[in-house]
Each structure stands twice: as structure tokens, then as C-alpha cells.
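Supplementary notes (optional reading)

For those who missed the lab, this is the record we used. Protein: D-serine dehydratase. Length: 447 residues.
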Amino acid sequence: MSYPLPTRSFLLPQYLHKSLSDVGTPAIVLDRAIVRRNCAAMLDVCRSLGVGFRAHVKSHKTLELSKLQVGDSGPAHFIVSTVVEAEHLLPFAQECQAAGRACSILYGVPVPQSTIPRLLALASNLAPFTLHILTDHISHFEHFHAATKNAAIGVYIKIDTGYQRAGIKTSSPKFEALVKTVVEKSGHGFQGFYSHFGHSYGGDSEEDAANGLIEELNGLELATRAMPEGFRGKLVLTVGATPTATAAQNMLSSSSPRVGEFKEILARLGEKHVVELHAGVYPLLDLQQVATRARPQTGDAQNGFAPLSQSSIGCKVLVEVTSIYDEREKPEALISAGSLALGREPCKSYPGWGIVTGDLGNKNSELVYDERGDKTGWIVGRVSQEHGILTWEGPRAQMQPLTIGDKLLVWPNHACVAGAGFGWYLIVDSEGGGDKIVDVWVRWRGW
């Protein structure tokens, strides 16, 4: 809350109904139509599979997109990575609870002890056990419990199913003692087990994503065996990351090679527990996500899921050509966005920091760089802090000429990191023309 930004009402008069060609650069743009489709597809597949869903908000940090992630009805469960995200969700959570709608907020990594006063303040303004935390170490839990034992804050145990960022392995000699301690001291505040399969970003096929999803479910089933005798009540088993959660859409198709195994374990777990998927970047998508190839490039209308391709990326960065160097070995151009606007995370499928979309100012190019195809088009080949260098990949004779002042849209490698460089998103809607700004969504800042 200590990082003030302009309000939506202040920004709207500056941007509403303007064309992107009239906007200063760099700017970050969301296509509301694409984002809505991606959100609806995730909710639809969870309903079809009979599992819960928990929306991670750290990728976009906006109230508007948080609401799209959970839809207009049904449970509204969230994950946050910072306390400030939970603080900004508080009014909506209160609104949901006043309307009788199930709602909860989970802090998605073991919490820093210094955040406890703010967590206690949040919990005091919500129904009991609306706010949840993760733990993976007895000392961490005992410190937290001692400071919050009079607060109704729920607890999940974070399981490491291979990512090795946070979490405890079920094979750890400390695991059973951790479970026993948390269950005894938390009582009915113990919620269940959580896994984040973050290394699924390294996959490059539908099979890889399906394997990761099933591996997570097996890992949490193994975790449930450590529960003390006499425990009553259903546990929540929450699994995911965008590649594995999105791979669940493939499980609606009988052509998926592991669909039978998936449905079998899902049914087995569902008899005793509540299975929940969680994901965050899926509404926006980016080039890293497309590179996982977690589901087909083309949609499957019969089975109700969306494609995973460049066309399903809802996040773009607006840049401007500021100089041209067509005499170089590869034609190049300087643009008004570098690592602070695009991020510096690589993408395994191509050698760049962003791909220029087919919308080149007032020109329309059919030559968009396709890492699965002929690899011809403009990419962000190099980045410095505030500026980047576009490089033309492919035959020089096929180069799409650029002129100084051209406004271009670039798909970023990692939408979460690209968004962090901006205070707000400019919203367009491809179902209503696509070039005019229809809204502005202010991002939450701080920790």
C-alpha cells in the first residue's frame, strides 16, 4: 500500500477511446477478449473435471483480471505472492462473503515472519479461515503459530514434487513430524497439501505437461498417507502451474495418452479429498508458455478448450521504432523498450527477448517469426536497460521494411516480468476492433 499510483478514474480520460498509434511508448497492452477466453476455458475445464480452481493473481496484480479468473459465480479462491496483493483483494473478498460466496486467499510461499502483523490485520477483517498460509518447516510453522494462535488462519503444507524452490519432500525424514505438528496445533485450521510444479515450464509437449500433472497428484496422494490416525474431514489437495493446469484441458479428450490414468487417480482422490488446480499466467500467456506446447496449437471446440499458440497470447508490449540500421549484416532497428519493459528472461524456443506481432503500425505483415515454422520475421534480438534492438531473422529479401516512428506490438517472453515494469495496462478488445483503448487496469505495486 506504500507505492501509490494514479487511479483508474484519473487515467481513463487520458487513454479511453484512443488508438494505440496515438499512445506514448513503451506501454503494456492486454486484449480483453483473449484474456476472457483464457479465463473461461480454465473455469470450464475445472467444472467438467469436477475439481476446484484457485486463481494466482501475481502475474497481473489487478482487481479486474482477478474477478475474470473466478467468474461471476461459484467459489472465488485466490493465491497471492505478496501481502499487498491480499490487501488489495480484501474488499472483493468481503463482498463475496457478504453475498454468501465461498472465498479464500492463500499466501503462496512460506510467509516472512515480518509480514505477520499485516496478515493478522487481514484475518481480522475476514471470516475465520478465509486467509491461509503455507509452511514447509517445523521451525517456520512454530514461529508463525506462536504469533497467530488466537487468529483463525488456515495452514497448508507445501510439498516439493520436484521444483526444489520451496516445499518439503514426502521422503524427508522431517516430513511426518511436520505433518503431526501442524495437524495437532492447527486443528480444523489445517487445510491440506499444496504443490507448485514450476519446472513444468521446461516441458515441450502435451505429454510432458500431462506427466507433470499426474506426478503432482501422485505426490500429494503420498502426502496424505502421513496424516495422523483419527483425522477426520476432507483435505484440499491443490496442484498446478500454468502448463500442468492447462494440460488438464487435454484430459477432456480421449486422444490424450494418459487420460485414463488421470481420471482414475482423480476419482480415487475425489472419494476422500477435494482436488484443486491452481495457475496464474494462463489468462495472459506469453512466449514461454507457448514454448511448453502443453496443449495443441489449434483449439478443440468439441471438447471446449482453447489453442496454445501465439494467437492466444493476451499480453503485448507497445514499442516504437526510433532508428534503423538496415546496412548491418542482419537488418536491425532500435526500439523504445528494453529489459525494464520486456524483462530479461530467455525463452527456450527462439534466441530473443520478444517477437513482433503481425500488426506493424498501419501495415500488416504475414511474416511473423514462428519458432516452429520458417523462423522468418522481426524479433527483439538484444536488449539494454531502456532500449532494445530488433533483428530481422530469415532471408533479407523477405524483410518487412520499418520506418522511424512505427508503432509495433511485441509478445514478451514472460508476461509476469514484463508487467512489473508498468503501473497500468491499456485494455483493448479484439472482438470490438482491437486498436481502440476501452479501459485501463491499474496494477498493484509493492510487497
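If you only remember one thing from this example: The two ends are 8 Å apart (CA to CA).
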